[in-house]
Amino acid sequence: MKKIIMVWFFFSIFFVSIVAMAEDTTSEEFKKLDEISNYAWQLSKQNRFEEAIQLLQYFDQEFKNIPINTKVYSVDELHVLTSSHHKALDALEKETIDPDEKIKAVTQFRLVVDAMISEHQPLWGTMEEPIMTTFSHLKSDMEEGDLQGFQQEWNEFLSLYEIIYPSLTVDVDDQNIKRVETHISAIEGNMFLELSEHTKFQQLLAMEEALQDIFHHADKNESDPSLLWVIITTGSIILLALTYAGWKKYKADLALKLQRKEIDK
C-alpha cells in the first residue's frame, strides 16, 4: 500500500512539473507575439501601414509555429485572437479603408494580444478614461435635452467600446459583458426615445454602473481548473501518505505497548 501511494505521489509531482513547463513555454512564445503586435500597432499609428502589414504577416507565421496549450488559452480565446488578427490585416491591406479605421482595427488586435498575456492592468483598461468621459457627456446631453449631441456622443461611445470589446471577451466574465450589451440594445432600440426623461436617465445610470464594474473588476482569474485539480490531487496523496504512515506508526506503538504489558505480567 505504501509503495503504491509513493508511486502515485511521484507521478503527480512529475505531471505537475510537465504542465507547468508547458504553460511556461506557451507563455514565453506569446510574449514574443505580444512584442510583434506592439511594433505593428506603433507603425500603424505612424501611418506606416505597409510595414505594419509585414509584421502582422510575420505574427501569423510565428503563431502557427507555437504548440498551443489549451490549458493556458481556451479555444474561444484563440478564436478571438485569430479573428481580430484577420480583421486588422484585412483593414491594412484595403486601400479604400480610412486610415483611422486601419489604426482602430490594429488597436483592437493589439489589445486582444495584450489581454491574453497580461496578468494585471491590461492595455484595454487605459480606455476607461475616454469611454467614461464620453459617457459623462451622454448623461449631460440627456439632461439638457440635446438629442443631436446625445446621438453624436453615443456614436463615439460605440466606436470606443467596439475597440475594447474583443479583449473584454478574453478578460472579463461573460455576465458582466452581457449586462453592458443589454443596456446597449435597450438604448439602441426605438422604444428608448419614447421613454420618459427620468427613465432614460436611469437607464444610462445603470449602464454606467455596468461599465464601471467591468473596468474595476476586470482582473483575469489566472487559476486553471485542470492545474488546480492536479494540485488538489497531489495534496490529497501527500495527506494520505502521511496519514498512512502515522497510522502504521500508531499500530506499531500500540503493539509494542501491548507486548510490554504482557512481559510485565
Automatic annotation (TrEMBL):
Signal peptide: 1-22
Keywords linked to the UniProt accession: Membrane, Signal, Transmembrane, Transmembrane helix
Record flagged with keyword Ion transport: no
Domain of life: Bacteria
Transmembrane residue ranges: 227-247
Keyword Glycoprotein: no
Pfam families, A to Z: Spore_YpjB
NCBIfam families named in the record: spore_ypjB
Entry protein name: Sporulation protein YpjB
Source organism per UniProt: Aeribacillus alveayuensis
